Amino acid sequence: MDNLNIESFQSANALRKLLSTLRFGLGNDSWIEDHPHIFGTLYYSNFFKCIQFLLAHLAFQVHLDFQYVRLADSESCRIYSKMNTGDWWWDTQDQLPAGPTIVPVICTSIKTHWTNFSSDQHAWPLNLMIGNIRKGICHTPIKHAGILGGLIPCPPNGAKNTDEAWHSTVGTVLSPLRNLNITGPGLKWNCADGFQRQCYTLLPAWVGDYPEQHMLAQVSYGSCPMCEIPTRCSDFSTT
After folding, report:
1. Where are the domains of the chain?
2. Which pairing describes strands 125-130 and 147-151: parallel, antiparallel, or unpaired?
3. What angle do helix axes 162-173 and 210-217 make, rounded to 10 degrees?
4. Cβ-contact 200, 187 below 8 angstroms
């Protein structure tokens, strides 16, 4: 334990200073400070730098999938086990030019209550992962397959227009995706296996609890954010 050089923090500003000193290719120059948001300052990382780092990280060299595959059991029934075995990857690949590599981005966000005894009571982290990394690695926290992409400003209790503010800040973090043309040449990035690929970064999945999904889909509370099932037929009205 003496060699781990563990440092503590007592405020959000102290945490941000520690994050800016990370020595994994995402140092202080990858963080952006954006002030003019409704509920405070938005801190976020360069989106494409995060994705490039995950693709080129040597620790994931033997845990990356770049090609879409179809798996079946002995009875010829489809097996869906990893993201590259899903129909979405196949259907999207057909819309792209020949020879591209899809880099699916998985975002996770959840508002977290820290403490009642200081002014920094909440944190709202936005984390990024890529679907090319196999799920066994992504589901193991010590593998660090996710990157903190941003810290969303937390609205005070009783604040209005929270949905609008959330979409504005998340839109800022993910803004590079808006300018990506899937019919264009893509982005030439280095990968951990030593090859350079034409990459297309897409956002197929967002992981969050029901309040997060409700805010993401901008539906009335109690409705299903995934389908058109009536509220009376769901369990959301009782939670």
Report:
1. 12-65+94-208
2. antiparallel
3. 80
4. yes
The DSSP bridge partners found for residue 200 are: 102
Task: Give yes or no for residue 126 having a pLDDT over 70.
Answer: yes
- Cα angle 149, 194, 96 (rounded to 5 degrees) comes to 65
- First vs last C-alpha separation in the chain: 43
Q: 62 is written with which tokens? A: 């033997």
At 191, list the tokens: 């990968």
| Whether the Cβ atoms of residue 159 and residue 146 lie closer than 8 Å to each other | no
Q: Which amino acid is residue 170, in one-letter code?
A: V
Q: Flag whether pLDDT at 238 surpasses 60.
A: no
Structure tokens at 103: 């880099």
180 Cβ contact list (under 8 Å, min separation 6): 187, 200, 201
User: Residues 170, 126: contact at Cβ < 8 Å?
Assistant: yes
Q: Three-class SS of residue 71?
A: strand
Angle at 27 between CA 166 and CA 58, to 5 degrees: 100
**Does the pLDDT at position 20 exceed 70?**
no
**Tens digits of residue pLDDT in 206-221:** 888 888 888 888 887 7
